[in-house]
Write a structure and sequence with these properties.
Elements: H1 2-11, H2 32-44, H3 52-63, H4 73-83, E1 86-90, H5 103-120, H6 133-136, E2 142-153, E3 160-164, E4 178-186, E5 190-191, E6 197-200, H7 211-228, E7 233-237
Parallel strand pairs: 2-7
Antiparallel strand pairs: 1-3, 2-4, 4-5, 4-6
């Protein structure tokens, strides 16, 4: 209003407003057959793993294909979370505590990095390529192995899900029968499938891997390494899991005394 008043005082007129004079573009979703077909696809896939990527694929290759029109991922996400009324939510379980900067953790990390820096000089990273003689310092080349365990369950799914407002998809209460996998890997060979261990866990099946199981698998890896790389040393790294800090069979345990 102030701008209009100044303009009138100077020129004796008020210029015509340009509000609403820009070109009007209608959204593709305003075309009822397209919107209806998109809603039908969303309804039929409501309990599936709908993501902006899968939604984009369906819109471009099913709904809009007869019209020779495509949309971008940005538009697909805007339609899904805006005009079509879906939301994205995260399912959270458990509590995470970050102890990475604890004094004892920092001290051990520094020690670990120093040890790894010395070991790394002797590592071979691919077959047929050996470290320089100066890096070996009179010692044998070595292969670095890592170990880890993972548990996969039949009802595992993504934590982030897209769904209509107030209509979240149902998930089974149970995560399903677990399958535990214990495996070693190296940069030279990748997964060492020859010593891989899998086990179905639960009623009627075996229990989770124990320290005894890991020790037996460790011995199998040692035998595999000696047979495959008789002229190389080996360094094997385990993470800090309770099954990796087991006692010897004849060890004295305060809890059992």
């Amino acid at each position: 209003i102030k701008k209009w008043a100044l303009e009138y005082l100077e020129n004796g007129t008020i210029s015509k407003s340009k509000t609403g004079c820009h070109t009007k573009l209608k959204s593709i979703l305003s075309f009822e057959p397209i919107r209806r077909e998109i809603n039908n696809w969303l309804s039929s896939n409501e309990n599936a793993d709908v993501t902006p990527e899968s939604f984009l694929d369906a819109v471009n290759n099913i709904v809009l294909k007869p019209y020779n029109i495509t949309i971008s991922l940005f538009t697909a996400r805007r339609w899904l979370l805006g005009e079509l009324g879906w939301v994205m939510s995260t399912r959270k379980v458990g509590l995470y505590y970050d102890g990475h900067e604890r004094e004892d953790v920092v001290s051990y990390r520094k020690e670990f990095v120093e040890r790894m820096a010395n070991i790394e000089k002797r590592m071979i990273r691919q077959k047929g390529v050996l470290p320089a003689e100066a890096d070996l310092e009179g010692k044998r080349p070595l292969i670095f192995y890592t170990h880890d365990e993972s548990t996969f369950q039949s009802n595992d799914c993504k934590r982030r899900v897209y769904h209509p407002v107030n209509r979240a998809p149902f998930f089974k209460k149970s995560r399903g029968t677990p399958v535990m996998v214990s495996e070693f890997m190296s940069e030279v060979d990748g997964p060492i499938t020859e010593v891989r261990k899998t086990r179905v866990v639960g009623k009627g099946h075996g229990g989770y891997f124990t320290g005894k199981d890991v020790a037996e698998q460790f011995e199998e890896l040692i035998n595999h390494h000696k047979k495959t790389y008789p002229d190389f040393d080996a360094v094997i790294a385990f993470d800090n899991a309770c099954t990796h800090s087991c006692f010897a069979q004849d060890a004295l345990k305060a809890s059992k005394m």
